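User: Can you recover a sequence for this backbone? Please restate the input before giving your answer.

Assistant: Of course. Working from this structure:
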């Protein structure tokens, strides 16, 4: 079928919304009419080259929700009309990682940036006569998409689509960074470095885990204000500005848990975070940096002598088929605030405006909403 999509044709170029052609679903695939797509910072990493794709052009979008409109052969447990969320990490359920309970590290992830469909190793999307690589084999910046069933999670039909889109990436990544990877416990002090969509989700995870003090760090005044509304007890413009107050507020112990959720990870942030982390404390690196960046600033003496723990994480260490329904159930019961995380909504044609707003610090999360005019 012919539809439209936001395509990136080269580094540091704007997204181009233009006609694309999408193939029909083959064995194990479904066609989805998209309702909403979250505008995650990771898609901007493609623009800057921090996330190296196999080639261009690339269709953006890896956060989204919609309705199944067509089934390919051999699809199990999904039906036309199902409401679904797309998971940016497919889960086969059989590989060594999945079998060990780490579906967020499924072996199918090795092909996420190649553009080759899981089902048959071909391309599903074409534009201007060329093969198009969909971000994370999804490409939610289009009103329609064809994806493998391992990337699809069925949800309840009473969940708003814009809210549902957020739990495909940013919310579970941040929430799990606090609750699972950092293992925040009642009474602990927690630092959240960067309070965009992922950081605000980590903040909510720390609140739900019973943290006594939550120190939000972000250079944007408006985001610091929002962090306090979401449950942070203190907010600072930088790690340097936070050191002395945290020393005073923790009686010199510092924070037991530190979580880095900035928009773009840099090597020097590790040492900044570890300075704010207590003895035998844990620092979780959730933010993504450039693939080519190999330099990390780290005081090796203090790292070992104070027995600190440094962790990386993807999808908050959780399994999409468990985490996505659980988080949406928490939303329905009022235990998780997703409505206020959606700062602005955009049309697909406004995708570049949305990313500029993100870079300008105006959004916690921007969301693209599709309408009948798009379908």
């Amino acid at each position: 079928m012919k539809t439209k999509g936001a395509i990136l044709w080269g580094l540091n170029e704007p997204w181009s919304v233009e006609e694309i052609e999408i193939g029909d679903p083959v064995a194990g695939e479904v066609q989805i009419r998209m309702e909403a797509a979250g505008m995650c910072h990771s898609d901007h990493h493609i623009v800057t080259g921090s996330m190296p794709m196999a080639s261009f052009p690339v269709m953006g979008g890896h956060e989204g929700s919609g309705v199944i409109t067509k089934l390919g052969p051999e699809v199990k447990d999904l039906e036309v009309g199902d409401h679904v969320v797309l998971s940016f990490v497919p889960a086969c359920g059989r590989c060594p990682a999945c079998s060990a309970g780490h579906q967020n590290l499924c072996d199918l992830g090795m092909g996420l940036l190649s553009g080759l469909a899981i089902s048959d190793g071909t391309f599903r999307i074409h534009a201007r006569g060329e093969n198009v690589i969909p971000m994370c084999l999804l490409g939610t910046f289009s009103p329609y998409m064809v994806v493998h069933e391992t990337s699809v999670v069925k949800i309840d039909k009473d969940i708003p689509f814009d809210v549902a889109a957020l739990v495909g990436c940013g919310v579970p990544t941040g929430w799990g960074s606090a609750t699972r990877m950092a293992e925040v416990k009642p009474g602990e002090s927690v630092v959240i470095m960067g309070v965009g969509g992922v950081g605000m989700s980590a903040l909510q995870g720390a609140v739900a885990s019973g943290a006594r003090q939550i120190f939000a760090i972000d250079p944007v005044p408006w985001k610091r204000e929002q962090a306090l509304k979401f449950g942070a007890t203190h907010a600072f413009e930088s790690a340097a500005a936070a050191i002395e107050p945290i020393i005073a507020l923790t009686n010199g112990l510092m924070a037991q848990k530190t979580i880095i959720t900035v928009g773009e990870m840099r090597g020097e942030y590790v040492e900044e975070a570890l300075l704010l982390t207590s003895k035998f404390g844990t620092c979780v690196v959730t933010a993504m940096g450039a693939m080519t960046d190999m330099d990390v600033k780290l005081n090796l003496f203090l790292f070992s002598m104070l027995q600190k723990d440094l962790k990386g994480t993807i999808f908050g260490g959780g399994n999409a088929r468990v985490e996505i329904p659980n988080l949406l159930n928490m939303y329905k019961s009022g235990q998780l605030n997703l409505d206020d995380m959606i700062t602005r909504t955009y049309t697909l044609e406004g995708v570049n405006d949305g990313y500029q707003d993100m870079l300008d610090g105006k959004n916690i999360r921007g969301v693209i909403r599709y309408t009948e005019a798009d379908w």
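That completes the design. Residues 253 and 278 are 6 Å apart (CA to CA).
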